[in-house]
Amino acid sequence: MKNNLGKTKLPIRHRRTDSLRDFDRLPRQLREWLRNAILPWSPKSVRRVYHRAFSNTGNIDTALAELERIQERQLAKDAQH
Q1: Residue 3 domain-assigned?
Q2: Count of domains in the chain?
Q3: Nearest C-alpha neighbor of 43 from the set 61, 31, 56
Q4: What does the alpha-carbon distance between residue 10 and residue 24 come to, in Å, rounded to a whole number?
Q5: What pLDDT was estimated at residue 40?
Q6: Domain for residue 24, yes or no?
Q7: Domain containing 56: what range?
Q8: Of 19, 32, 46, 77, whose CB is crowded by the most CB atoms within 10 A?
Q9: 72 in a domain, yes or no?
Q10: In angstroms, rounded to a whole number, what is the distance separating the alpha carbons of residues 2 and 11?
Q11: Could you write out the DSSP letters of every residue in 34-80?
Q12: Which residues, 6+ apart, have CB-to-CB distance to 41 below 8 Å?
């Protein structure tokens, strides 16, 4: 199924991990954010960005806002193509 990723011009990366298992291991807040994400994020990349932002701020909401900011930046980049 290659058509379930939406209409993005961003590069698609194929992964060799069990994304469903990785998703199930995410904290509840990240699973909720990922369910509502516009872009097809991998659980691994969401966790990496979240942990980096959380370690810098110590605030869950600020870390989630960082994920939103990055997603908006990627959407703007996609709109330019």
Answers
A1: no
A2: 1
A3: 31
A4: 26
A5: 87
A6: no
A7: 43-81
A8: 46
A9: yes
A10: 13
A11: HHH-SS---HHHHHHHHHHHHHHH--HHHHHHHHHHHHHHHHHHHHH
A12: 34, 71
